[in-house]
Amino acid sequence: MQPYRRFHSQYRERLSLSDGTWAELRMVRPEDAALLREGFERLSTRSRFQRFLSAKPRLSAEELNYLTSVDGERHVAIGAVTWSPGGKEMGLGVARFFRLAHAPEVAEVAITVVDDAQGKGLGRLLLDRLVEAARERGVERFDFRVLAGNVPMYKLVQTLAPCEPEQDEESLCFSVPLGAPARGGSEALRSLLALAAQGALTLIGPTCRWRATSRVPPPVAYEEESRSP
Where do the DSSP E strands lie in 7-66? Predict the structure, then answer.
């Protein structure tokens, strides 16, 4: 018998963000394609570039299908929505992981929070739930990458799990163990997402295309413009 999972297809959780906005967290489903497209259109050019490493104008039908047709096991996505004054559902953010086919205990992470929802604690909430969902499925490590030259992210990852990243074109790839649940055990990850949600640091993915490259030194760019908020 499969053990009980909190994060199943019917998972829903309502909570209040730091500014008093009510939001609902739930698993992403195929019918969320239009919601995801509308949320993407609310991302600034800067946020789009940080997430996709390009000035992406739109999500294609194939991309929308891929990002919403999740199986809940290898590809898990938790979305956050709120409601307009007229009662229309509006997307706020999505946190997802993709388990590696050759190493299912490892998952790549991608997190996006729309600009007008940044700085309200949503990134921390989404990451906490994503970590829980990953542990339920036996995931032991998150792989993620950030733009090369992002000094605050580099320093923060070192406090979380001292390591050297792999260079992958214009980004750095990090591997972070989730560890066992413990009081304050996810604090470093929450801090990382607090910065990401503020726009100073951004997690992007997928995917880290691992290569046999030499270790890279700490980044030196963006020192002034990527300070921790």
Answer: 12-16, 22-27
Q: Rounded to whole angstroms, what are the CA distances from 78 to 65, 128, 139, 211?
A: 15, 11, 16, 30
DSSP letter assigned to residue 218: P
Contact 11, 70 (CB under 8 A): no
pTM of the full structure: 0.78
pLDDT digits (tens, 9 = 90+) for 21-30: 999 999 999 9
| Tokens standing for residue 94 | 């999505």
Residue 197 contacts residue 45 (beta carbons within 8 Å): no
Which residue reads 């890279």 in tokens?
216
Q: List phi, psi (to 5°) of 100.
A: -75, 135
For 29-40, the three-class secondary structure string (H helix, E strand, C coil) is CHHHHHHHHHHH
Q: Provide the 8-state DSSP code for 219.
A: P
Helix, strand or coil, per DSSP, at residue 152? helix
DSSP code at position 116: G
